[in-house]
């Protein structure tokens, strides 16, 4: 690709970008949200048309007008939001729109479709029945179906956008094994990820984009991580994790043998000034604990206390009134109103404070939103910008602002940096530390091991719905967490 330029109304998304992918390599695209990564790969995949520049594929000049033309040339993209039909089988999804037909009969050849699906799944080392409905598969299994679907197209180039964002360590290992096999067969891969630890492990080369411009291409195995981050964000991040470990204050949360949907006998506590993590594999029950504490899901047994007061029949309204906030894993669907402005999102949880004689005090509401825009450094020209138009990091800041406006002192952060670039992660980490330093108690759920290790005062490890180990700061390591998260046998809450 040479001199690729793409404009949208009011935005120069790509500014004369050069980009090259070699046969059989994993080429990582690195950049902050809004850097132009998605626009670039969508041009390659035929989703967008470029405004300027030239593109060559397999030595020939190409000009894909749509996705089908790119697929016919051997290019497939697996989006972060998977594009499968849940009510159809694996085989039907693999060959959707390209079903093999019985010669002369004009009917789908289901036997051939099943045979071909079995061969593709076997090639990927997957023990899956092609007659299984996609809705019955895990996210990781669905992702493998997307890979099989791409392989059925005789691909030469596979584009993967944040493929590990919802996967466990074992599932990531499986995916990386498949990627290595694809490389050996000569297939090239463009890999988009914000997870820096993955890049060295799976990548061959890394191209950095910033503000729609090409910055540099580095060797993935030998590159200096701090240098890469500095090039990506345009500034040097002196320290990604900067925890000030505070002397814990009073207890803000205590649970005693709490039992609910997909978890049982969970006994944990959080004190003022602490960041306490719930660690474990996807499906261990961590998010379910958070939702039960906040009153979204029912509690079936046990007790819990907020700021020393027993909580009976919790509801979100009651929890907020008591000083608790939940920043959900799926912030777009559960934490924000994407089609509403920043101002309205920030005041959404504190409207009761803004009413006077039954009328919202607009000046106070605006002042509140402006205050948290400034304090949280939300990157926006004004507070009337729609939240859906913000980057992931700034959306997360809006959710934090919403809860800060309620005077909450206990925060549950569920996957606080999912889908957020490295520069914004540093700001979120600083925000977590600031909250703790100002006396808030924080319960954090994260699948990113480095976050858990570098931010936590203590860690509770969960496995199959139970807390199996509590680790203090001196005991926390990746090896220790995984040993308890993966172990078989009885549990010990201590």
What tags apply to this protein structure?
single chain; about 500 residues; alpha/beta; Rossmann fold; 6-stranded mixed beta sheet; 18 helices; disordered C terminus
Explain what you see.
The chain has 494 residues and is of the alpha/beta class. It has two domains: 4-233, Rossmann fold (3-Layer(aba) Sandwich); 250-486, Rossmann fold. Helix content is 34%, strand content 24%. The protein has 18 helices and 23 strands. The chain has a six-stranded mixed sheet with strand order 6-7-8-3-9-10, with helices on both faces.
Structural class: alpha/beta
Question: What multimeric state do the chains show?
Answer: single chain
The CATH architecture name of the largest domain reads: 3-Layer(aba) Sandwich
The fourth-level CATH homologous superfamily of the largest domain is P-loop containing nucleotide triphosphate hydrolases
Query: What is the typical, i.e. mean, pLDDT?
Result: 89
The coarse silhouette is: globular
Runs in which pLDDT lies below 50 for 5 or more consecutive residues are 488-494
């Amino acid at each position: 690709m040479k001199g690729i330029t793409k404009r949208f109304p009011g935005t120069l998304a790509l500014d004369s970008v050069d980009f090259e992918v070699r046969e059989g390599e994993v080429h990582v695209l690195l950049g902050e949200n809004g850097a132009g990564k998605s626009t670039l790969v969508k041009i390659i995949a035929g989703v967008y048309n470029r405004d300027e520049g030239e593109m060559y594929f397999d030595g020939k000049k190409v000009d894909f007008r749509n996705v089908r033309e790119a697929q016919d040339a051997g290019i497939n993209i697996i989006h972060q939001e998977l594009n499968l039909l849940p009510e159809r089988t694996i085989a039907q999804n693999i060959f959707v729109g390209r079903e093999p037909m019985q010669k002369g009969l004009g009917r789908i050849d289901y036997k051939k479709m099943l045979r071909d699906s079995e061969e593709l799944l076997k090639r990927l080392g997957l023990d899956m029945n092609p007659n299984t409905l996609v809705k019955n598969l895990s996210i990781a299994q669905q992702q493998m179906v997307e890979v099989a679907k791409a392989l059925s197209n005789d691909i030469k180039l596979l584009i993967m956008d944040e493929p590990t964002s919802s996967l466990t360590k074992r599932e990531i290992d499986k995916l990386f094994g498949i990627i290595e096999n694809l490389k050996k067969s000569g297939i090239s891969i463009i890999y988009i990820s914000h997870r820096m630890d993955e890049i060295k492990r799976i990548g061959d080369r890394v191209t950095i984009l910033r503000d729609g411009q090409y910055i540099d291409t580095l060797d993935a195995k030998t590159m200096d991580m701090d240098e890469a981050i500095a090039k990506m964000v345009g500034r040097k991040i002196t320290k990604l994790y900067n925890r000030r470990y505070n002397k814990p204050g009073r207890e803000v949360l205590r649970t005693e043998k709490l039992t609910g949907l997909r978890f049982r006998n969970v006994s944990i506590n959080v004190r003022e000034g602490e960041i306490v993590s719930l660690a474990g594999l996807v499906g261990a029950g961590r998010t379910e604990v958070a939702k039960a504490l906040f009153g979204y899901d029912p509690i079936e047994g046990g007790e819990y206390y907020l700021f020393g007061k027993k909580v009976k029949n919790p509801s979100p309204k009651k929890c907020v009134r008591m000083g608790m906030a939940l920043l959900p894993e799926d912030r777009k669907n559960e934490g924000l109103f994407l089609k509403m402005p920043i101002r309205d999102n920030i005041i959404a949880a504190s409207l009761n404070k803004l009413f006077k004689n039954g009328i919202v005090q607009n000046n106070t509401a605006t002042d509140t939103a402006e205050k948290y825009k400034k304090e949280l450094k939300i990157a926006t020209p004004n507070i009337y910008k729609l939240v859906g138009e913000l980057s992931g990091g700034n959306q997360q800041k809006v959710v934090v602002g919403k809860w800060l406006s309620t005077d909450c002192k206990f925060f549950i952060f569920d996957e606080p940096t999912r889908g957020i670039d490295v520069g914004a992660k540093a700001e979120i980490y600083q925000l977590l530390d600031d909250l703790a330093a100002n006396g808030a108690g924080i319960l954090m759920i994260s699948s990113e091991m480095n976050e858990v290790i570098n931010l936590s005062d203590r860690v509770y490890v969960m496995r199959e719905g139970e807390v199996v180990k509590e680790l203090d700061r001196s005991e926390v390591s990746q090896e220790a967490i995984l040993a308890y998260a993966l172990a078989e046998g009885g549990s010990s809450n201590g």
